[in-house]
Amino acid sequence: MILPIYIYGSPVLREVAQDIDAAAYPNLQELISDMFETMSDADGVGLAAPQVGLPIRLFCIDLTPVAEEVPKGMPFKQVFINAEIYERGGANVKMGEGCLSLPGLNEDVVRPSKIRIRYLDENLKERDEEFDGYPARVIQHEYDHIDGIVFTDRVAPIRKNLIRSKLAAFTKGKFRAAYRCKLAR
Fold first, then answer.
1. Which of 5, 43, 54, 82 supports an S-S bond with 49, CB 3.0-4.6 Å?
2. Looking at residue 28, which CATH number applies to its domain?
3. Total domain count, the chain
4. Is 42 annotated as a binding residue?
């Protein structure tokens, strides 16, 4: 089922999400499936649970549409539950980012090129992995969502001033998106 994507200005996007207790989420697999379907429908490569109105520590990535950016041997489609990035390193790289919760807005963001992350996969199996390059960027972007951070929080201060009116427009429902959205106040 395609879920509505919550738009910038929705309070859930600013909440620090809570860990998932598997026993409390008997429909976890259904939620994960719905999130992948929602992400695909919106032409995204990542989607965090707060973006569909759930303040839980869950995000999904599917890098299939950008396969040329993914190092060989790295999975394209992955689920991260109760994730914790505990190491960041490598070069700081500036790259354009967008977000399904801010349709049509793209800005440069500086992020470390490598991360180490502990998480549970979709089968609740513990994982501890290192990612670099584009996968590390997407994971950090989605991880920010579960910490109540949106990518515009990380743009240079001068750019943030320049996009202030665009951000205000989102909070008033003045945006266009080719997918189902929700602005919760």
1. 54
2. 3.90.45.10
3. 1
4. no
